[in-house]
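Why does residue order matter? Because the sequence determines the fold. Keep that principle in mind as you read this record.
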Amino acid sequence: MADTIRIETEVGTAEAYLAGRPGDPGVLFFMDAIGLRPQIAQMADRIASWGYVVLAPNIFYRSGTVAELAPSGDLRQEGAREAFFASGVMDRVRGYGPDRSNQDAVAWLQALGQHAGPGPIATTGYCMGARLAVRAAGLFPGLVAGVGGFHGGGLVTDSDDSPHRSIGASTAEFVFGHADHDRGMTPQQVATLEETLRAAGRPYLNEVYPDAPHGYTMADTSMYQEAGAERHYAELAGLLARTLG
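Structure:
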């Protein structure tokens, strides 16, 4: 099963990609800043093939539909990714704070629950989506059993609502695969995340992937790195097997 569905939230209708066999354990997939597109569908399909129901919502639905927000060019071409990000993408990212994402998470989980089997779920997130995956674990302890975060940025900040502060309230196992030399996740921030995970007593992996650029999982952009992408799939598959059975 693979389909685009519509999810009613308190403020509008969001498109979402749904893949997997109904009744299998659920995985909530938080997209990167580029948006819901064929690359995300392909990744969701691969995860679903392991025996899961995967839901990937368009978190930017307040700003437009999937078609309206999609890149118009080939982001693998030199300069195309940078031009796309300069077109207003970061305004959407900055505008999607906890006041919106926490509210939406309720709708995403309700929609996933209509298709997945009973029991715990996992979240996985990419780029800004890693922040959302972590926040969901803190919002729904006892439900979110596993969290994957890959080439995430801003996981550790000085603000009171920094994503890493959600870990203490969670009951999840965490797997982080950080991009190497990532300005959005510095060695000091990775170390702070490590300290937080250890203090919370949560099982975790918190590793930097050598030479992997920010966005290394995204095969439709110039940032793709096969070694990092395949390592991420292996680590994520292990996490899901351990936490969802």
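The CA atoms of residues 36 and 66 lie 6 Å apart.
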